[in-house]
Amino acid sequence: MYAIDGRRAQKVKRPIGKGVFILAAVACGLLIPLLLMLDLRTDRQIAEWWTTHIEAGWVRVVGTLTSWLPFSIMEFFIVCLIGLGIFFYVRLIINLGRARFLRILTGALSICVGVIYVLNLYMVSMAFAYYRAEMPIPQSQRTYDAESVKPVIEYFFADYNNLAQTLPRDKNGCVECPYTFSELAERVKVEYAKLTDPYFNQYTPTAKPIVNSWFMSQMLITGMTFLPTGEANVNNAAPPTTRTITLAHELAHAKGVFREGDANLLAWYVLVTSDDDYLRYCGYYYSFDNLLESFILTEDWESYSSYAVRLSDLVRVERWFAADYWNSQWDLIGQIAEFFNNWYLEANGATNGTGSYDDGNQSTVVTPTDPVTGEPERDPVTQEPVRIINFSQVQKMFFAIYEQKTETA
User: Fold this and answer.
1) pLDDT for 323
2) Which residues contact 257 (CB under 8 A, 6 or more apart)?
3) Burial grade of 118 (CB within 10 A; 0-12, 13-18, 19 or more)
4) Which terminus of the chain has fewer Cβ atoms in its 10 Å neighbourhood, N or C?
């Protein structure tokens, strides 16, 4: 810097203003409750109490307010954040060029305060639910074998096949949704209202479609629940059946069920037990294959092949279209989104990351062995090796629904 007479001006050290210290103090102040909640949420009793009291109250109040708006507040905030990001980046380049390091420090601290504040809102409204007790979904306690499994599968197979062949379909071969998005959201809310267990939040927010759903499709994302705004958001560009199951899945999160496998299980239960033909079809579409695998567990390969072949070809056409749709999206963006989603789930206690979406589908067969000889234990009558079948949660859910419907019929 030079003075008017051409001589080099004396360097003047500018004091760090109070604003920097205030921002640093606010950031530290917000960091304390954030770290405290991070530690407390892993305690199951605290997580349970927090989810059913603090989180449930938050969703009821904030969800009621945001439901009055026809657009997604979460999407609006994301657009604003992108705009702010561009603004701060431009200002950073300008300030670096002019060596205005104090302004850079102030901007960085402002961003830190905003990020920590949002993380605190996230912790209050969502993070504890990942560590709560097991979800109370109906699970059959009866023992099923190859013979007793068959009538259960036939019961649901007949309904699924009938719906697949009778429900109207669009030009792509997908079952047409007979409702507008808002009507569909209300119908699913009605189904959730049937859950009376106190484990589930009694308030159900209104699901909202994302305007920029094309970008969600590029990221291979079908929906996102963001409870700081009390909203369940759905990719409205996805195939119809996918939109419906996603809507039910995201509302499961809003009901206090945040582990992905549990949210899938609850969504399938709510849809499969519905009296609405379209909702029931969507529930079968994503869960029936797991029930059909019961034949594999019981080694009834003939029945498995028979039912697989008898399933309506219209279902296969719909699956081909859905597969083609997702395969047409930009894989690079999808992989990036998958990486961050996997990291996010691991940070919230899911050791298997995105694999946790399939947690309710896991079934096993145990063959006990003699501790002395190491030979498989055999049935005393048939002399066949003993096979202990542990059916998946989805299969036991179907068994429980079947028992309830046939015993009350």
Assistant:
1) 93
2) 129, 135, 200, 263, 266
3) middle
4) C
Q: 104 with 92: CB under 8 angstroms?
A: yes
| pLDDT per position as a tens digit, 36-71 | 999 999 999 999 999 999 999 999 999 999 999 989
pLDDT at 269: 97
Amino acid identity, residue 308? Answer: A
Q: How many CB atoms lie within 10 A of CB 54?
A: 13
Q: Find the helix or strand (DSSP H, E) in which 153 lies.
A: helix 146-166
Residues 344-359 as b or e (16 or more Cβ within 10 Å = b)? ebeebebeebbebbeb
Residue 10 reports pLDDT greater than 60: no
DSSP states along 204-237: -PPEEE-TTHHHHHHTT--EEEEGGGTEEEE-TT
pLDDT for position 397: 96
Under 8 Å CB-to-CB from 12, ≥6 apart: which residues? none
Lowest mean pLDDT among 37-51, 121-135, 268-282, 348-362: 348-362
pLDDT bucket at 8, cuts 50 / 70 / 90: low
CB burial class (10 A; 0-12, 13-18, 19+) of residue 82?
exposed
**Phi-psi region at 374: left, alpha or beta (left = phi > 0; alpha = psi -120 to 50):** left
Count Cβ atoms below 10 Å from residue 287 Cβ, excluding itself.
26
- Residue that is written with structure tokens 């579409």 in the block: 285
Q: What is the pLDDT of residue 13?
A: 52
CA angle 61, 209, 219 (to 5 degrees): 115
What distance in Å separates the CA atoms of residue 342 and residue 347, rounded to the nearest whole number?
Answer: 9
Among 122, 106, 123, 235, smallest CA distance to 181 is for: 235
Instruction: Name the DSSP class of 74.
Output: H
